[in-house]
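Reopening this one. Same input as before:
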Amino acid sequence: MMAGGATLRLGPLAADHQDELATFRCRQFKAPWTDGIEELVQTRLAGELELGAIEALGLWRDDLLVGVVAWSRQPARPEVLHCVLLAVRTGHLRRGHGMRLKSALLEHGRAAGALAIESDVHFDNDPMLELNLKLGANIERISGDPDYLFCVIRL
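Same output, byte for byte:
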């Protein structure tokens, strides 16, 4: 329960949430990389979920989807979960939703026997870099890619 009577609920996200995903907005004018994240959530996430290529959790505030975290597990590296995306709806930033979603992913990873969570983060995505650091991530440059940093959280 939140102030003002709003209720937060974390739960599995599935292909049948397509209508909610299609209207999910996370684009920010000052952060052009959010265009790609929004497109991924709106147009490809449901299909990836249906194929079983990824798993995801959603965070709802009352009946509104306000956050998404999605991850994959590669057969060659089953001990590592790769965080494909973490997005919070425009207008719902800086309320702890990202921390709640990433913490749920860490909890899921531990329960699934993973040893680490990894993700690629755009170099100027300060909120996501800060979040990863708060959760104990090791952050390093990706060789040959000046735009993204590699974050690893050991479980």
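So the earlier flakiness isn't reproducible anymore. For the record, The chain has one domain: 3-154.
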